[in-house]
Write a structure and sequence with these properties.
Helix content is 39%, strand content 21%. Strand 3 and strand 4 form a beta hairpin. Strands 2, 5, 6, 7, 12 and 13 form a six-stranded mixed sheet that branches. Strands 8-15-14-11-9-10 form a six-stranded mixed sheet, covered by helices on one side. Helix 2 crosses helix 4, helix 6 packs across helix 10 and helix 8 crosses helix 12. The protein is built from twelve helices and 15 strands. By secondary structure, the protein is an alpha+beta fold.
Length: 422
């Protein structure tokens, strides 16, 4: 089984010399054997062909996912657990570790082994899948770790754009012409944009993690419901104002927010291993009150989301593979134009209690790569607690400023909840 990488996947893969890795850490209370973990990993590999895939290149040096006849197991690295924050150190180590994807799968497993509590990490190349897919195979891994005979089904993998874009749309000459026209126009524009000769020096990368307790988390959710806005919009507004407060004129007043493509394409199931995503950009209006700004932003989010066209976007990108080099160069060498990327995975639909162990917490995923501004914030909610991971690089956003932005976000949340109580 094999398929050619789509445009976005090729962009994330790069030339193999720079990692673009994502990490999902979680904490289990219980005792395990290496054999049990390896059997559970083998089960999810059995379900998902692309978790067994290697990267091969054809005669034109185009990369393909290819599943070998003799499956190669997901590598497991074991580390003795010494403290509760060790998962952060191991996450940052995994960011920097390349995947030898011609010989091993694009995923590996790290077991920070303790006597009664273990922290575990799934690390995977971002070209393999997105956070939504990763949460699905985490859910399945825990199922079969608890019960090796559990039925987790079998994935019918996506083998190309034809499995996502309806045949009628893909065959439409009008849609084909439109996609090629937009693709050529974009490719020409990208070539004309001046960029520096050198990429920005990232310097040291960092990871900042924090949680909101159950009371604050539930209060924030209740606040958003009462104001008819989403938690995602609230947090985006808080992040934008925090950047402006800390960075002043250096802030861009722009946050990129991924939108789950599964909302628009029923062909992509929740458990599909798939990396393609959509994006919108939101900005704040500090001339009005925070609440008024929330309502304006919510309207803007709804408007921009309604205009997203995943089928045309995919067709445009697939018509522009020859522009990949220039597009990647623009991302690496062009000036940053947004403050950060903010992604909210929402409430994680993963059980807490199992027969053989308990899932104490799931830490929000982290991801970092070489394509432009690395500043990213990811939020998720598990067991009624909101969890945040903020990652970045000194060359884009100094660590001291990132910490100040975190503190300002927390202050904004606290103030809004105090106001609603008053």
């Amino acid at each position: 089984m094999k398929r050619r990488l789509l445009f976005g996947e090729r962009m994330l893969l790069g030339d193999g010399t720079e990692p673009f890795n994502a990490v999902i850490p979680f904490r289990l209370k219980g005792t395990f054997t290496l054999k049990e973990i390896q059997q559970a990993l083998a089960r999810i590999q059995e379900k998902h062909p692309w978790l067994r895939a290697l990267i091969t290149h054809d005669e034109k040096k185009v990369p393909w996912f290819e599943v070998p006849e003799q499956p190669i197991s997901i590598p497991v690295r074991i580390v003795a657990r010494q403290n509760e924050d060790q998962w952060q150190e191991e996450s940052m180590k995994e960011w920097k570790t390349l995947f030898p994807y011609e010989k091993l799968p694009l995923i590996r497993f790290i077991w920070i082994k303790g006597e009664e509590v273990s922290d575990m990490l799934f690390a995977f190349h971002h070209c393999l899948c997105d956070g939504g897919s990763a949460m699905s195979f985490l859910y399945e891994f825990l199922q079969v770790l608890d019960n090796p005979s559990a039925d987790i089904g079998t994935e019918t993998p996506i083998l190309g754009i034809q499995d996502v874009v309806p045949a009628a749309v893909l065959a439409s000459r009008r849609q084909q012409f439109k996609a090629k026209f937009i693709g050529r126009l974009a490719a020409t524009g990208i070539r004309c944009i001046p960029v520096g000769k050198k990429a920005v020096d990232r310097q040291n990368d960092y990871l900042i993690h924090w949680k909101l307790n159950k009371d604050i988390s539930s209060g924030l959710i209740a606040y958003c419901k009462s104001r008819n806005v989403t938690v995602n919009t609230f947090l985006s507004a808080a992040v934008l104002r925090a950047f402006r407060k800390v960075r002043g004129a250096a802030a861009f007043n722009k946050v990129s927010c991924p939108v789950d493509i599964r909302r628009f394409t029923p062909q992509i199931k929740n458990d599909h291993i798939f990396a393609f995503g959509l994006m919108i950009v939101v900005s704040a209006n500090e001339k009005i009150s925070f609440l008024e700004d929330l309502w304006e932003m919510q309207e803007a989010v709804a408007r921009k989301t309604s205009k997203l066209n995943p089928y045309m976007t995919m067709m445009v990108m697939e018509s522009a593979h020859d522009a990949l080099k220039n597009f990647t160069r623009l991302l690496k060498h062009g000036k940053s134009s947004n403050d950060c990327m903010f992604s909210n995975l929402g409430r994680l639909q993963i059980p807490h209690g199992y027969k053989a162990f308990t899932l104490e917490t799931v830490f929000s995923p982290s991801v970092i790569g070489p394509l432009g501004n690395t500043t990213t914030m990811v939020a998720s909610t598990f067991r009624d607690e909101m969890d945040f991971s903020m990652m970045g690089s000194e060359g884009y956003l100094p660590y001291t400023e990132a910490m100040a932005i975190r503190d300002e976000v927390l202050q904004i949340i606290t103030k809004q909840l105090q106001d609603i109580e008053a």
